[in-house]
Amino acid sequence: MTELPLSGIKVIDFTGVQAGPACTQMLAWYGADVLKVERPGGGDVTRKQLRDIPDVDALYFTMLNSNKRSLAIDTKSPEGLEVMEKLIRDADVLVENFAPGALDRMGLSWETLQKWNPRLIFGSVKGFNDDSTWNDLKVYENVAQCAGGAASTTGFWDGPPTVSGAALGDSNTGMHLLIGILTALIQRDKTGKGQKVSASMQDAVLNLCRVKLRDQQRLEAVGYLEEYPQYPHGEFGDTVPRGGNAGGGGQPGWVLKCKGWETDPNAYIYFTIQEQNWVRTAEAIGHPEWAEDPAYNTAKARQDKIFEIFGEIEKWLADKTKYEAVDILRKWEVPCAPVMSMKELANDPSLRKSGSIVEVDQKGRGSFLTVGSPVKFSAFQPEIKGAPLLGEHTDEVLAGLGYDADQIEDFHRKKIVVGS
Ligand code: COA
C-alpha cells in the first residue's frame, strides 16, 4: 500500500465536540498517528450525545473520530500531566478546542508547551480570536453562525435571522485550522520551529461570508443590491438583507417547485438563469420567443419581472420530477440541481462510488454511514476506519511511554486512566 502523506506525524488530539475532532480526523485519514486524549469519566461528550443505540458510542462521536486511537486519562492529576508532558515532548502537533483558559488552568500554557517541545505545532480553536472583546465566551455552532455574519444574511426578509444546516461554525473552523496546521508543518521544515496556530469560529464563518461583506460595501456605495429580491420593487436598509434563495449578479436563481412538491418537502430544483446561456434557457423552458425579445433578452430587462419568469418556469416544471427536470435542463446547459434530501444523499450510488459517503465498521455497533474524504487525490485513497472505544489504547500508549505493568495497574487502581 502507498505510504500515506502524513505518516510519521504524531498528533495529540486534545479536542471535543466537532470543531477540533473534524480537523484531527482529517489528519488521521491522511496518515497521521492521531491520539485522542479524553476524560476518564465518559470521554468526549459526543460519545453520549444523541445516542441512537443504548450504551453504544453515538454517531456524533464515531463520525468525527474515525482512524484515531484513544487514551483516557485525567490530565489534571500529577500523573496525567506527566503523561501529557511525555507525549508532548515527542509530538509534532497538539490540537485543542477547550473553553478559553482551560488549557492554562491544566498547566499546559503555550509557554510551557514551547519549552517542552520547540518543534511542536499547537493548533487551537476558540469561539472568538484573542483580540475579540468576546474572547472569554464558550461557543457552539449556532453562536458562531450568528456572530460571523451567516445568520443575519440567511433566510427570508420577513423572517428572523436563520442558521444554516451546514456546520459553518464547527467543521468549517476545523478545516480552517487544518489548513493552518499543514502550513505550519511546511514552515517547520524550513525553520525547524513550531508555532501556535489559532482559528476562531467567528473568523471562519466570516471567511465564508466574504461575499456578504462585499455586498455591504456595495450597498453603502449605491444604496441597493440589484441581485437581491428586494430590487427593484422592495426597500433596502443600511445593512445587507436576507435574500432568500437568490443567486448572484447576472446569474439569478431560485428554488423552484417540481412535480410532487405538495407532499414531498424536497421536490424542488435550484434553477439558475445564466446570462450567457439565455437563448438556450428560454428554449429549454418552452419560451423560445423570449430568446430575442428585448423585454427579456438581457439580465437587466429581466430584473423587474424575474419572479414572473420563475413562475413561468414552475409551470413548465409542474409535470416533471426534480430528476426529470434536471435531465432535460442539463442538455441545455442550465446550471441546476435537484434539492437533495439526506435520505437521497445517503443512498446515492455515485457518492458511494466516489467514497464521499462510506460504510464503516464500528466496534459495538456494526456498520454505519459516514462522510468520506471530500478531497480526492490521484496518488492515494484514504481508508476510513472505525472510531476508538474510550481508552481503547490507554495501556498500549502508557507502555510505549515506558510505564511498566505495575505502574499502569496503579494508574487504573487510582482511576487516573480507563481502558476498554
Ligand atoms: N482530564 C481532566 N480534565 C479534562 C480533561 C481530561 N482528560 N479533558 C478536559 N478536561 C477539563 C477541562 O480542563 C475543563 O476544566 P476546567 O473548566 O475546570 O478548566 C473541563 O474539562 C471542561 O472543558 P470544556 O469541554 O472546554 O468545557 P465545556 O464542556 O463547559 O465547554 C465548549 C464546551 C465547546 C463550549 C468549550 O469547550 C468551547 O467554547 N470551546 C471552544 C470553541 C469550540 O470549539 N466550540 C465547540 C465547537 S464544536
Describe the protein.
- The strands form three sheets. Strands 6-5-4-1-2-3-12 form a seven-stranded mixed beta sheet, sandwiched between helices. A three-stranded antiparallel beta sheet has the order 7-8-9, covered by helices on one side.
- The chain starts with 9 loop residues before the first strand and ends with a strand.
- The chain has 420 residues and is of the alpha/beta class.
- It is built from 17 helices and twelve strands.
- α1 crosses α7 and α6 packs across α8.
- The chain folds into two domains: 266 residues, Crotonobetainyl-coa:carnitine coa-transferase, domain 1 (Rossmann fold, 3-Layer(aba) Sandwich), CATH 3.40.50; 82 residues, formyl-coa transferase, domain 3, CATH 3.30.1540.10.
- The site of coenzyme A (COA) has 25 residues, from α1, β2, α4 and β5.
| Percent strand | 5-15%
Q: Give a short account of the largest sheet.
A: 7 strands, mixed
**SS field, number of helical segments:** 17
Low-confidence stretches: none
Overall average pLDDT: 97
Order of helices and strands: EHEHEHEHHEHHEHHEEHHHHEHHEEHHE
Strand order in space, largest sheet = 6-5-4-1-2-3-12
Q: CATH homologous superfamily of the largest domain, by name?
A: Crotonobetainyl-coa:carnitine coa-transferase, domain 1
What hetero molecules are in the model?
Answer: coenzyme A
Helix share of residues? 25-40%
Give the domain tally.
2
In angstroms, what is the radius of gyration?
Answer: 26 Å
CATH architecture descriptor text of the largest domain = 3-Layer(aba) Sandwich
**CATH fold group of the largest domain:** Rossmann fold
Q: How far apart are the termini?
A: 30 Å
Report the top-level CATH class of the largest domain: Alpha Beta
Give the overall shape: elongated
Q: How many extended strands?
A: 12
Class from secondary-structure proportions:
alpha/beta
Catalytic activity: formyl-CoA + oxalate = oxalyl-CoA + formate
Family: Belongs to the CoA-transferase III family. Frc subfamily.
Enzyme class: transferase
Protein name: Formyl-CoA:oxalate CoA-transferase
